[in-house]
Structure formats: structure tokens, C-alpha cells
Design a protein that fits this description.
By secondary structure, the protein is mainly α. The protein has one domain. It is built from eleven helices and two strands. The protein has a two-stranded antiparallel sheet. Helix 1 packs antiparallel against helix 3. The chain is rod-shaped.
Amino acid sequence: MTKLKVNLNMLDAFSTAELNAAEGVGFARLYADSWLGPLPESATGTAGSQMWSTAIAQMGKAREKITANLDRLNEVAAGSAREIGRTAAAYRGMDLRHAQDIDDKHVGEELPDTSPHEGFWVGTSPLLRLKEPTADPAIPESISAALDLTSWLSLSHWVNKGIEVICGVNPAEYLAEKIGGDWEAFAKAGSAVNNLADYYGDYADNIEADRDVLFSPADGHAPWEGHAANGANAYYTKLVQSVKGEAAPLRDFASQMKVVADGVAQMTDALKSGLEDLMDYLITAGVALAAAGVSWETGVGPLIGGLAAGWEIYQAFKAWAKVVDAVDKAITVANTFAGAVFGLLGALDGMQDCPLPSGVYDSEVPG
């Protein structure tokens, strides 16, 4: 039969350490709200942007699950810590024989009670992981400004006619409709999600280390032994597994967000190059056509091969095709991301399956 041994000060120290850690979860919750919350359904000035709307289609649900999990972590961490504290208080309120009877073992010695233990939560504080996120790769705060799209809104008659023939739409309006959005904020949100994954990992490591201190034998005896201790040990083992289990889906989520951020950065570079080439060829071709007294419509028709502007017109078509291709590739990435997030949603709420200690481990100590 299991002999009851308990170091009450160790139980108090364990309870206090876990309660303090649970309070820190509130900061993690604020961190998640701060960096995942500012992603609007439509970015300023680009309402209905195809790529943005696609990319953030499931972000609201993901954010809700991430914050709900942090709320649950706070609830179970604080609840289990208080249960340990109540157990210690209950032990102090009874004689050893009564305590041993409750623990299903009769013993005739005093409960050990040594000086407070200083070894709980001595690892890296999870809160240190919650640093300011970064946009990596660097993404302009405004793609419109980075591409100087406003310069496409006030052009000469000849260039505008060229745009009608080559592009069919104004490039600035086309890109605002297709790819506008606060992509820098999106990239930072992905970095924040990765930081939250690291937070969960460190939190689990600290609980696991504390559990080992409280329940693993040192010099032949653990600070707490008995049936209630076995139940508490089993509960904290499950809690560690639940907390560790949150890190992997968050890292997967962050990784998918980085793929989108990388795609936006590559798209921005391709668009900048394509738009610069397009403008150069439109201007050169327009000048040549004007000098020849030929309109864009005529020049792009049967006479294109024999005009001096023919090469520039051909290159303008290629430059615009490069722009459209870069946008299409980026939208494909956004579509893939939206599907991946939908698949990850079920894995983002694992903490909801972690029960409160009441009914999970029963110390059989009145409190």
C-alpha cells in the first residue's frame, strides 16, 4: 500500500508558481489579440481585394480558437494550481492519521514539512517568447506606394491609349482590386503566431520540470507521495501533453502564413519590374506611333510588324503578361493558404479537451 508523505511547503510553492504562470497567460492573450486582431475583412482603400479577402477568409475563426485556447490554458492552469493549494491547506487542518486514512494508508509519523522550495519555474519564462513580431521577408506597408501606382492615374493621352490596347484596364485599378491589403500586418501576425507556439513549448517545459520536482523521488522519496499525489501527477502529465500539443499546429499555421508573406514579397518584386518595363515600352511606343502619325489601334493591328514601334509594343504585351502572371501566382498561394487554414482549424483548439482538475484527480482531502 502507498504510504503518505507530503512536504506542505513544497505544495504551497508549487501552487504559487503555477498560479503566477497562469496570470502570465493573460498577457499572452493580449498579445494574440494585439497582433492577430488588426486584420480587417477589407484593407483600407482596397475593399473587396481578391487576394486579401481569400487569405483572411478563415483568419477570424483561427484567431477565435487561438484566444479561446489561451483562455482555457489560464483556466486549467490556475484551477489545478488552486487545487494543489487547497490540498495543502486541508492537510494542515487535520492530524496525520486522518490524512493517512483519507489516503488509504495508516502511518504513525508526522507529516514532513521543510523550508520552502525555490526550484519551481526556474526555466526560461515563456513570456520572453512574446516579443514584437517582424515582417520577414520585409513587405512594404503599402504595396500601392511601393509600386507607385498613383503615377498610373494621371498619364498622357498616348500612354492611356496604349494602356487600353495592351492592358484593357488601368494597372493601378487592376492591382488594387486583385492584391491590395495590409500584407505587412499579415506577415507580422504570422510571426506572432510562431512566437505563441514557442510560448506554449516553454510553458509545457516548465510545468513538466515542476511536476518532476514535486513527484519524482529524491533521496528515495518524492516531496509528495500517496494516492492523491499519484492522481495529481497523472493530471499534470496530461496537462503537459495538452500544452505541448498546441505548439505544433500553431507552428504549422505560422509556416503557412509565411508562405503567403514570401509570395507577396516575390510578387511585389515581380510587379515592380513588370510595371517599370511596361511604362518604358508604352512611352517609347507612344512616341514612335505619334511621330509616324499612326494610332495605337492601327499600330497594333496589321502594321505592327512594319512600324518602328512594333518591338516596343510587343515588349509591352510581354511586360503586362508578367504583371498578370505574378498576380495569378500570388492569388493561387492565397487560395492554397485558405484551404490549409481550414484544415488546421480543428487542431487549433486542443486545449478545449483538457479538463479542469475537479473530477480528474481526486485528492480525497476535504477542502
